[in-house]
Amino acid sequence: MLEKERQDKDIQKQESDVSITRQSTFFAVRTTAGQELNVLLMLEVRAKTLDLPIYSIVSLPNLKGYVVMETPGLHVVYEAIRGLKHVKGRASGTLKWEDLESLLKPKPLIDMLKEGEEVEIIAGPFRGMKARVVSVDKVKNEVSLNVLEASYPLTITVPVDYIRLAKRE
Length: 169
Prior knowledge:
It comes from Ignisphaera cupida. By secondary structure, this protein is of the alpha+beta class. Helix content is about 30%, strand content about 30%. The protein has five helices and nine strands. The strands form two sheets. The protein has a five-stranded antiparallel β-sheet, with no helix packed on it. Strands 2-3-1-4 form a four-stranded antiparallel β-sheet, covered by helices on one side.
């Protein structure tokens, strides 16, 4: 008798463990460009008040005009975005995790650097100075720079961690 009860409890536990795993899909919601953060915050409030099963809401800086939602189905997306300001609609289809992952992972700075680009030195004795990239050594993870604020031509070699890209126009 005890053995049968134990087996029944084990079966119930396995069934409850299966129900914990969630099946979710990523959907892109089209928004007014520049209003992604506002839409994201409104979606968060709506998800909490209506108790919607929205697992995550992401606004990517390199994906202007879109907010990505992780939900179990399309009906949840329509319920969440209904009547919200700055929402222009839902993009057709779903997103794959692989596509999102490529947008989420930052690219290493050394891969983005090119010769002739202007950078700012953020560490070391030349901290705060502007410089121009002369060469990039990906193997050693170093960059040769020509310091622009020096009174004579000064070329230095620093680790990539010591620099950041100057703001592009």
